[in-house]
Structure formats: structure tokens, C-alpha cells
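DM from R.C. (forwarded with permission)

"hey, sorry to bug you on a friday — could you get me a structure for this? deadline for the figure draft is monday and I only need the backbone to look sensible"
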Amino acid sequence: MGRYWVTSGHKHLANDEWLTPPWMIESLGPFDLDPCAAIKRPWETAQKYFTIEMDGLNQKWFGRVWVNPPYGRGLDQWIIKASNHGNGLAIFPLRSTDTVWFHEAVWKRSSGILFVRGRVRFWTPDGIEGGPCPHSSIIVAWGQGNADVLEKAKIKGHFIRGIS
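My reply, with the result:
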């Protein structure tokens, strides 16, 4: 099956765990909740967090949320929940743009989208920067305040305002 790229606190197939770069969290934060946090975190991504042991997808979300979900099966559930929550940011693979859930949760409901230029370098739970991600990434904002933060963030790419 090959190597599975995971950028949250969730472990799959190859037991790879890849974390949001600290500079990205600093540029976009602070956040109230990270429902996809790694069990071992060299830096905090939010004031509160849920790990895989806490099943963040099935918890009640609150406040301003940072979502860096597992990138495989079930990605749609995390993004739909983030969209329904309506207050936060999510980073995930650009390859999802042709799906029904992307059109509903992102194109119709987001407040802004950043198409990240280049490949993001995610980090290990030991605080070591990894190589470039094998795919393009986008960061989606729900809520006008989050879109404003995303637009002004020091992340290279092309930002577009959402229609919501």
C-alpha cells in the first residue's frame, strides 16, 4: 500500500506522524482547540486539544479551531465538521477539490482559501522538520475573522475570499 502521509496526531499504516510547522501555527493562531492533536507535541497548537485517544471527531468542538486532519479515509468528515463548526482553519490536500463534500463544505461555506505555494514541510513529534509533503496543500477559513488572519498570514500562496 505504500507510505501514508499523515499530518495530524493520528497514526496509520506506516505509523508516520507529521505535525503542523510551528511557524504556521504562530502565523495563524492562537487557537482554542486542536481536535487532531498529536499525543506527543513538541509545541502546542491550541489551548485545548483532542488526540486520537480522545476521538476528536466525535467530541464537541468549541471556540476557534485548528484542524490538521488525517489525510486518508475520513478526511471529508473532519472538513465537514469544521465547516459546520464555522469558526476555524483547516489544512489538507488540494487533491480533494473534485469531491461533493469539498464543493459543499469549502466552495459554498468557507470565508477564504489559501492555495499554498510550494510543498509544506511538516514536522515529526520529536520536533524535526521533514521533507516536502508529496502533494499540494490548501488552508481553508470559516468565519470572516479567520479569513482576515489567513489573508495576512506570512504563508506564501494565493488567497481568495469565500462567498459565505
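R.C.: lifesaver. Residues 22-158 form one domain.
me: no worries. The longest strand covers residues 88-93.
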